[in-house]
């Protein structure tokens, strides 16, 4: 086990200049992959109209008349 066998060194991701493996050593054979991200799923719109809306101009005029 040496730095030359490290996943990060082999893929040119290592910025350290060491002769022995560091704490982040991962074997190159491990084929590291990021975790799978959650899927974004859009829900169907359930309401046909908004639960609350501003009164129309005519309704506002009637309130202040």
Overview of the structural elements:
The chain is mainly α and 65 residues long. The chain has a domain at 1-33. The chain is 17% helix and 0% strand. It has 2 helices and no strands. It has helices spanning 7-10, 57-63. The longest helix has 7 residues, at 57-63. The protein is rod-shaped, with a radius of gyration of 30 Å.
Keywords:
65 residues
> Could you give the order of the helices and strands?
HH
Q: Which secondary-structure class do the elements indicate? A: mainly alpha
Helix content: 10-25%
Number of helices: 2
Please mark out the parts with pLDDT under 50 across 5 or more consecutive residues, or reply none: none
Mean pLDDT: 82
Q: Please tell me what the overall shape is.
A: rod-shaped
DSSP strand count:
0
Beta-strand content bin: under 5%
Question: In whole angstroms, how far apart are the ends?
Answer: 87 Å
Cα radius of gyration in angstroms: 30 Å
Largest sheet, in brief, is: none
Summarize the structure.
This protein has 65 residues and is mostly helical. The chain contains 2 helices and no strands.
Write the layout of secondary structure elements.
Layout (H helix, E strand, L loop, with lengths): L6 H4 L46 H7 L2
């Amino acid at each position: 086990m040496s730095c030359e066998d490290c996943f990060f060194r082999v893929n040119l991701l290592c910025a350290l200049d060491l002769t022995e493996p560091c704490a982040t050593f991962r074997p190159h054979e491990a084929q590291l992959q990021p975790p799978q991200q959650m899927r974004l799923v859009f829900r169907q719109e359930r309401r046909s109209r908004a639960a609350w809306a501003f009164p129309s101009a005519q309704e506002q005029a009637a309130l202040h008349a």
